[in-house]
Write a structure and sequence with these properties.
This protein has helices at residues 13-22, 52-60, 94-97, 108-120, 168-172, 230-235, 238-249, 297-317, 325-352, 358-373, 375-386, and strands at residues 2-9, 29-33, 47-51, 72-75, 77-82, 89-93, 103-107, 125-128, 130-136, 141-147, 150-161, 177-193, 200-206, 209-217, 220-227, 256-259, 263-272, 276-277, 280-282, 288-289. By secondary structure, it is α+β, with helices and mostly antiparallel strands. A hairpin with a 4-residue loop joins strand 9 and strand 10. Strands 5, 6, 12, 13, 14, 15, 16, 17 and 20 form a 9-stranded mixed beta sheet that branches. The protein has a single domain (2-179, 267-397), classed as FAD/NAD(P)-binding domain (3-Layer(bba) Sandwich). 47% of the residues are buried. Helix 1 (13-22) runs parallel beside helix 4 (108-120). The structure holds flavin-adenine dinucleotide. Flavin-adenine dinucleotide binds next to helix 1, strand 2, strand 3, strand 9 and strand 12.
Length: 401
């Protein structure tokens, strides 16, 4: 039976980042995933907005420098507007905020590949397999692993559940969830446009839901469209899809010329009722899944990574048991405020822009214009978007955990 100090279940962006953050500690670490250990085959061509703070953390982890310039598109301007009957428009500019960029758009596949390349230079063991069950005694957890028709088990002192929204680790620990179904889905497609606005991202709030357009370099933009009739949009042919999208987004980027195959994601907010169980802790989407409207999910998960890695490093230095439930509860306590704030912020945006009633539409327009006119308010919005809200964990300050 294999033995590790820590098994991280789920080698997505969050799990792989945690493995890297812990790699310098004197610990045996295993990263368990049925697919992500081969990111070259990643079929998910989504792009993510990475906040300034998260970029710094990824630099500290050594993954960011592995991205080629073509993989990263800086955002120097965000245009937020209400196209649902209101008249509000606000611009957030990097130069007004005194930073080189408000955030960066990076492809999911490129970022995963950079994380795995960095992991290749560490002692972290990549294990292909699916978490299939868990038992624990006072000091260890035994993790059942399935890989095709083979099965086995791994013993560890701490199991980290980084296995996403439908976390099997969370279920095996008997941790319940609170779920809010937004009743819509997000459709993601990379489109070419006739009049690109370099380095400008758009967030359009329409009567049927928000549409984000993220610059990914040259004339290409990732569109993230949230709609109640997402299935119907998925079923359209390319021409019909581009026509519908133009109708909702407008012509700010000229004509929409072509679209990549669309990906669909049901939109839910899901929070685990607890983040800690005996010999187990949850991070990333396994602990909290958000609406993607403000591009906060991975950024939030990366802050889980930074705080958990700090907590584990502290336990190592103090010769304490990092898998002890009471010690891990300190981690959960430290994460509560940030997760609650980010959830409120994201949900608040969805709610504020959801109602169709004309007086509310007008109020939203006024709100956006007020934000535009008040530098203090705009700065507060920008700081949240940039992931620079203090206190920042060590990884976000360029320091090892
Ligand atoms: C449309 C959309 C756009 C988004 N845009 C942004 C953005 O711009 N910025 C941002 O910060 N966030 C964004 N997000 C959120 C972001 O995608 C997630 O928060 C982030 O990917 C979560 O990472 P994770 O590693 O926790 O989970 P996941 O990415 O879901 O990874 C989970 C991993 O666990 C593995 N796994 C699952 N089950 C098992 C098992 N039984 N055993 C072992 N392994 C298992 C999976 O193979 C996977 O590799 C967006 C989300 C959506 C839907």
């Amino acid at each position: 039976m294999q033995r590790y100090d820590i098994v991280i279940c789920g080698g997505g962006l969050v799990g792989a980042s945690l493995a890297l953050a812990l790699a310098h500690l004197p610990l045996d670490i295993c990263l368990l995933d049925p697919v992500a250990c081969a990111p070259a085959a990643c079929p998910d061509d989504r792009t993510f907005t990475i906040a300034q703070g998260s970029k710094r953390a990824l630099e500290t982890l050594g993954a960011w420098p592995r991205l080629s310039p073509g993989d990263v598109a800086p955002i120097t301007e965000i245009e937020i507007s209400d196209r649902s009957g209101g008249f509000g428009l606000t611009h957030i500019l990097a130069k007004e905020q005194g930073v080189e960029a408000l955030g960066f758009v990076v492809g999911n596949a490129a970022l995963l590949a950079a994380l795995y390349e960095s992991l290749g230079a560490t002692r972290v063991r990549l294990h292909r397999g699916r978490f299939a069950g868990l038992t624990h005694d006072g000091s260890e957890a035994q993790v059942m692993v399935a890989d095709g028709d083979k099965s086995g088990s791994i013993v560890c002192r701490l199991l980290v559940g980084a296995d996403g929204t439908h976390s099997a680790v969370r279920a095996a620990c008997g941790i319940g969830v609170v779920t809010h179904d937004y009743g819509r889905s997000a459709i993601v497609s990379n489109c070419r446009v006739s009049r690109p606005r370099p380095h400008t991202a758009f967030e359009r709030f329409t009567a049927d839901g928000p549409i984000a357009a993220l610059p990914i370099g040259g004339d290409r933009y990732t569109f993230v469209i949230s709609r109640p009739d997402g299935g119907q949009w998925q079923a359209l042919d390319d021409e019909g899809f581009l026509e519908h999208l133009t109708g909702r987004f407008g012509d700010r980027l000229g004509r929409l010329l072509s679209a990549s195959p669309r990906l669909g994601f049901p939109l839910v907010r899901r929070h685990a009722r607890e983040w800690v169980a005996p010999r187990c802790v949850l991070i990333g989407n396994a602990a909290h899944t958000l609406h993607p409207v403000a591009g906060q999910g991975f950024n939030l998960g990366l802050r889980d990574v930074a705080v958990l890695a700090e907590r584990i490093a502290e336990a190592c230095r103090a010769h304490r048991d990092f898998g002890d439930r009471a010690w891990l509860t300190g981690y959960a306590r430290a994460r509560q405020a940030d997760v609650a704030r980010t959830t409120r912020f994201t949900d608040g945006l969805v709610r504020l822009f959801a109602p169709r009633l004309p007086p509310l539409a007008a109020a939203r327009g006024v709100a956006l214009n007020v934000v535009d006119a008040l530098p203090g308010l705009k700065r507060a919005l920008a700081i949240r978007t940039m992931g620079l809200k203090t206190p920042l964990p060590r990884l976000f300050r360029g320091l090892a955990p």
